[in-house]
Amino acid sequence: MKAESRKRNLCLAVTAGVVIAIVLIIVILAFTVFKPRRPVDTIDSITIQEMHVGLNVAQLVVDLNITLGIEASINNPNHVGFKYSDSNALLNYRGQLVGEAPIPAGEIKAGETEFIKVSLTIMANRLLSNSQFFKDYISGSLPLSTWITTSGKVSILGFINVHVVSTSSCDFAINVSTKTIGQKECRYKTEL
After folding, report:
1. pTM for the complete prediction?
2. Which CATH number does the domain 40-191 belong to among 1.10.287, 2.60.40, 2.20.200, 2.40.30?
3. What is the percent of the chain where pLDDT is above 70?
4. CA atoms of 16 and 11, how far apart (whole Å)
5. Strands 87-93 vs 141-156: parallel, antiparallel or unpaired
């Protein structure tokens, strides 16, 4: 009986040792190789797809149609996939929302980059209601800012979920006479 008891105790000790070793390996991998890294949103380019601005001073009528094309990318540097939920690309004029376009949910595989193309049409009524618009139009430059926020999660080893929010924003100006985008200044931020 003592021999059986010893064998059983030895078997339990070996099993416990193996389980502890596996848990340690998983913890070490989770905090080194599979450590969550910050996905990065980047606004790669902003272009004018369509632009028509006309002023009829005699009739006090403004005809305005501006559509911007925004190309962005989301880079996932993690060793696991990044799932993000529905989002929006937003366009502001002097702190006022003047355009919005949806970005559908998706998933980016480990180490890959996803490219997103969005068309933002300026809501003319909101732009024209701003008292600064005519002054900016006459000066030849319309200051705008755009931003994209992607919210999602990185799942490590199938049971550790890390919530990630990545934001990119750019300030730029439309040159009215040449119908071009002036120099843009962009900022990027990611929170785990």
Report:
1. 0.75
2. 2.60.40
3. 89
4. 9
5. antiparallel
Write the pLDDT tens digit of every residue in 68-90.
Answer: 999 999 888 887 888 899 999 99
Residue that is written with structure tokens 């300026």 in the block? 122
Length of the chain: 192
11: left (phi over 0), alpha (psi -120 to 50) or beta: alpha
Q: How many CB atoms lie within 10 A of CB 11?
A: 10
Q: Token pair for residue 180?
A: 């071009």
CA angle 175/52/118 to nearest 5° reads 80
150 and 169 Cβ atoms separated by less than 8 Å: no
The arithmetic mean of pLDDT across residues 46-64, rounded, is 77
Return the pLDDT at 143: 94
